[in-house]
Amino acid sequence: MSLMHKSFTIDEHYINSLPFPAIVIKQNGQATISGKHAEELFGFSVTDITGHTTPSIHENLLRNLSSETFQAILHNTESTYIDKVQVYTHSEEEISSALLAKPFIEQGEHLILIMFMLPELMINSVSNSSTYVDLKQGLDSTFMTVTLDRDGFILECNAEFLKISQWTPKRVIGKTFWQLFPENEASEKITNTIWRNLNNGHTWQGEIEKVTKTGQSYWVLLTAIPTFNLEANEHQFILIEKDITKSKTIQHQLEKIAYIDTETGLMNAHRLEKVITKMIEEEKHFSFVYLSIDKFYTLKELHDQQINQSLIIEFTNRIKMYFQDSTMARINENDFVVITPLSEWFIQGFLSYLQQHPIYSSNIAVPISISGGITRYPEDQTTFSQLMKASIATITNVREAGGDKIVSLSKATHKALNRKALIEKRLLQALDQKNLKVLYQPQVDIYSGKITAVEALVRWEDEVIGVVSPDELIPIAEETGLINNIGSFMIEKACEQALIWKKAGHNLKVAINSSVREFRDKNMAKSILDMLAKTNCPANLIQIEITEKFALEAEAATSITQQMRKLENEGIAFVLDDFGTGYGSFRYMQILPIETLKIDKTFTSSLLKSEKTQKLMHGMVQLGKSMELKVVAEGVETAEQADLLITYGCDAIQGFYISKPVTPDEIESLLIK
């Protein structure tokens, strides 16, 4: 595969890791990087062959090469292999070598990696390769092994891995490194660390949780090693794993046995969950009181280590004294839970008790502030998980209001949490039964006055919950991991509908909203292209709308950018949605394949009320035009707004002034009008 379509960072460390002498040159023939093997063999120092004033390598190292051949090396977009060339050293000695030139792009610049494949090094490499095969055979009989390519795709694995992971070769080959691990924040963090180490040429070792094909958890001691495959002439990564699930399970069991917080003597969260579960089974009524010390880490910085330890002990003593005959637990360093039948007014009196019985450090009272939440069982919430979530939501509200209060779960929060829990439960059923539907909001081109595009919007009307808006549905779907399921559903419906309209003579572009979580999946672009092929929908009829938050992450994640480029190359356009409301960055507008800006409706709604908004919106339109982007204003509700936007130079408008989101049949009626 040519490197010309990929962007790499090839530095001195990479050059020195190659088994052959190597240098990197520009298209003018000047060297930019020289490996230590090349310097030792040819006798040239770095300064001898690099720099603006030095001759090209055609004038020293490769002066026996014809100009035509050298120019072909400089301008080829594919690798060039020359079986035999004469290379001149600094001392004018001639060395016979094979030459491999591989073009690549780094930060937009066309460069060429040249490797001198000397016969004696080829022999050593074959010998080393034989040693490697023997070593690998030994490892295969004892450990699980997986081989990855430079992009993290699985190339091969051994029988031991297939046995433990329950994969078959047909199903696992082509999967990615990341798909072998659980989909959670902790796993994502550690796998990114492993991948970063491998790409920096470093080995990584440690205990890590993995998942089988069926999603079952197992643990391995993993050693991840960067290697170089001579036959493929590319870097690869080897994963060597030892199954430690049994010992890890015993360890977890021992940890759960230790239900006591050693510092305070209170029960810990594991024990608390069991106690709460039993109380719920026995249908006992109680208040779940969550107490959190405000600005705890600031207090730790202000006082020495001795007070850090005694602060928690003294605080625990005050809880025990005030909430006598109640069940107590320490959740983490500065959070506590009290299970009590006591009344709300008494619980709130704990703040006054703390003021009357302060904790001292060097004869000075430590200013402790407490944020607390009271959630009742069964009136407010009915499971341990719900009680914890409700408490954290209450604490967050208290802290946002300044802290130092203990309050009950508000009716609004209580209602919102119950609805959220119900939505999570019903959404799984809705996806299974395909109860979601898609509406389309038209977009009118200013110049032609015609509907040229529609935005596909998911709608869900549940028989139990009622109507669930996208603003409510999408965050919950992202949190639960169901956003990928909704995304797949939307892509399929959009492709099917775009094709129906095309066959009816309407070339309507259909825009779908996509989450950055979906594009973290290395196979997202492939899934979209597979759906286009399955439905026979032309790629140029599909647009993908991304937010500024998405764009910010994509800017830093090469894998996401590459997927976007792949889709762009097939004809799919990207739209930057809600422009102006997120993290503004001119950089990602340069890097990412964005074709259209959609100015958020919050600006449009206040357009006629504020002169500042008018100037701001005019500026945003001009910014888009200056970057040769199409500019769309959404949220247009009146003719006055539309007229003003037209004078600013908007290319298209979308909003209730044109139409609310409607069914495909209603879109066809609008097209006829």
From TrEMBL:
Pfam families: EAL, GGDEF, PAS_9. Residues 204-256 form the PAC domain. InterPro entries: Biofilm_reg_signaling, EAL_dom, EAL_sf, GGDEF_dom, Nucleotide_cyclase, PAS, PAS-assoc_C, PAS-like_dom_sf. Residues 284-411 form the GGDEF domain. Residues 420-673 form the EAL domain. This is EAL domain-containing protein. It comes from Lysinibacillus mangiferihumi.
